[in-house]
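hey can u check if this looks right to u? its 200 residues, i copy pasted from the old doc so theres a chance i mangled smth
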Amino acid sequence: MAILAGADALGLVGKMPSGPGPIADDLIASISRMIHPPIASFLLTCEQTAEGIIEHVRRVNTNTVQIVDELIKGSYEDIRKALPHLNIVQVIHIRDETNIKEAKEISPRVDAILLDSGDPGAFTKTLGGTGKTHNWDISSEIVRTVKVPVFLAGGLNAGNVGEAIRKVRPFAVDLCSAVRTEGRLDGEKLSSFVAAVHAA
């Protein structure tokens, strides 16, 4: 459904502490086998160690990993050595201007950065799928500052994605909550969102 609507990539959500859309690893693996270039397959993982991320990717065999939390053990280089074919996208949850420095420090070591509206410091971590926007001025500054592609996420929908694209100028946009009805993907919402992106 997403590919037919015009998506360039599919985000397959692994086990998460909260948020919509997580599916089992065997289903992620099954879906990723059906996705062919030029469509990209993204594994969203909350693993925080290089070893855990490597093992998760090996179980599902996507071509991209989206690390939705802070990497606290091991390095991006460890992941690259183990999985040289893999594209690495690090999520930064925008809170304040300190995220600009964080993006600058991380960007030389990853293939892309994704800016979202989660709260990794909450009692129950929110690592995406919040349906909330964040400060696009900070996101815009990050886009101007770093030299890797920047994906914009966080509360995007057909009604505001045009403004977001014009203000932030991201490489791409990402969403989850706004294209669901009762927890399931909604074809009409997907098509409306893609149409709004193309119009922008």
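The chain is about 35% helix and 20% strand.
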